[in-house]
């Protein structure tokens, strides 16, 4: 019986790790989607990873203007990031 309880407890611990990993992967994916929208509008990135991936050679703004659907998608991304408790990252 004790062995079964230990195994059950371990499975809960490992399930938590799986959930944390899934959330981290989702956070990364959401951040990439957000950066792509910004990059498409010539945003000048501050984040080193974003600069490396998207570059700042053609950047021309710190305040891009987004279409209605883009603004809606960015709001969805930010809402999901908040829900997942993603680490706050500047672009």
Automatic annotation (TrEMBL):
Signal peptide coordinates: 1-22
Record keywords, A-Z: Signal
Pfam families linked to this entry: YARHG
Presence of keyword Signal: yes
Domain YARHG: 6-82
Transmembrane segments: none
Protein name: YARHG domain-containing protein
Annotated source species: Acinetobacter marinus
């Amino acid at each position: 019986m004790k062995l079964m309880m230990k195994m059950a407890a371990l499975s809960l611990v490992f399930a938590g790790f799986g959930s944390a990993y899934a959330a981290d992967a989702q956070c990364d994916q959401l951040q990439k989607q957000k950066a792509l929208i910004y990059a498409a509008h010539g945003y000048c990135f501050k984040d080193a990873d974003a600069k490396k991936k998207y570059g700042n050679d053609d950047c021309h703004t710190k305040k891009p203007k987004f279409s209605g659907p883009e603004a809606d998608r960015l709001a969805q991304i930010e809402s999901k990031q908040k829900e997942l408790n993603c680490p706050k990252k500047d672009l």
